[in-house]
Design a protein that fits this description.
3 helices, 91% helix
Length: 89
C-alpha cells in the first residue's frame, strides 16, 4: 500500500464523516441558537428547554434524511470493501 493510497483512504473517510455529521450538526446549531435567543429574551433558564427542541429537531432530521445517510454509508463501505484486495498487495 502506497502512502498516496493511504492518504486517499483517510481523505475519503474524513469527507464521509463530514458529509454524514454535517447536516445534523448544522440543525443542532441553528436550533440551539434560536432556543438561546428565546431564553435570553424571556429570561427562562431551564436546561430541559434547550435539550428537548434539539432532540426533536434531530429526530425529524433523521427521519427525513436518514435513508440518504444510510445509503451514503453503505456505498462508502461497499467501496472500501471492494478496495480491500488492493490494500493487501
Amino acid at each position: 500500500m502506497s502512502e498516496q493510497f493511504a492518504m486517499d483512504i483517510g481523505q475519503q473517510a474524513m469527507m464521509m464523516v463530514l458529509t454524514l455529521a454535517g447536516p445534523v450538526l448544522v440543525v443542532v446549531l441553528i436550533v440551539g441558537v434560536l432556543v438561546s435567543a428565546f431564553q435570553a429574551m424571556t429570561q427562562i433558564n431551564e436546561m430541559s428547554l434547550s435539550f428537548i427542541p434539539k432532540l426533536v429537531a434531530v429526530g425529524v432530521l433523521l427521519a427525513v434524511i436518514g435513508p440518504w445517510m444510510l445509503q451514503t454509508a453503505v456505498n462508502y463501505t461497499t467501496t472500501m470493501l471492494t478496495q480491500l484486495p488492493s490494500v493487501t498487495r
